[in-house]
Amino acid sequence: MSVSPDITYHETVYFAGHVQGVGFRYTTMQVAREYEVAGYVSNLLDGRVQLEAEGRESEVKAFITALEERMHGYIRKTERHPTRRAPEFRGFTIR
């Protein structure tokens, strides 16, 4: 199956638990450097952390798995929403 070059794999991920005030976003940024992904990570007002990541499906999935492994002691629940869409991001940032 060929995928159009203007369509990329994307996941919106919500992490719940003790994920704010523990370096979660900084760690996410560090882990993102190990993968070919673009997007951002941000704190939400309800105490969760939102991750937007896009790239090759294998890279995005490996990135999220690595992040979950690195921060497993802080994450109580992970909610993942995968899609395919036009790329929106350049690089990876903290918002």
How are the SSEs ordered, and which strands pair?
Layout: E1 8-17, H1 24-32, E2 37-43, E3 49-55, H2 57-70, E4 75-85, E5 92-94
Parallel strand pairs: 2-5
Antiparallel strand pairs: 1-3, 1-4, 2-3
Helix pairs in contact: 1-2
At a glance:
The chain is α+β, with helices and mostly antiparallel strands.
Notes on the structure:
There is one protein chain. It contains 2 helices and 5 strands, in the order βαββαββ. It has one domain: Alpha-Beta Plaits (2-Layer Sandwich). Helix 1 runs antiparallel to helix 2. Strand 2 and strand 3 form a beta hairpin. Helices cover 24% and strands 40% of the residues. 28% of the residues are buried. A 5-stranded mixed beta sheet has the order 4-1-3-2-5. It has 95 residues and is α+β, with helices and mostly antiparallel strands.
Short key terms for the protein model shown above:
95 residues; alpha+beta; Alpha-Beta Plaits; five-stranded mixed sheet; 2 helices; 24% helix; globular
Radius of gyration: 13 Å
How large is the count of helical segments? 2
CATH architecture: 2-Layer Sandwich
Oligomer: single chain
Largest sheet, strands/sense/barrel = 5 strands, mixed
What is the strand content? 35-45%
Low-confidence stretches: none
Element-by-element helix/strand order: EHEEHEE
Question: How are the strands of the largest sheet arranged?
Answer: 4-1-3-2-5
Backbone shape:
globular
Mean pLDDT: 95
- Per DSSP E runs of 2 or more residues, the count of β-strands stands at 5
Q: Percent helix among the residues?
A: 10-25%
Structural class per helix/strand content? alpha+beta
In the residues, how many domains can be counted?
Answer: 1
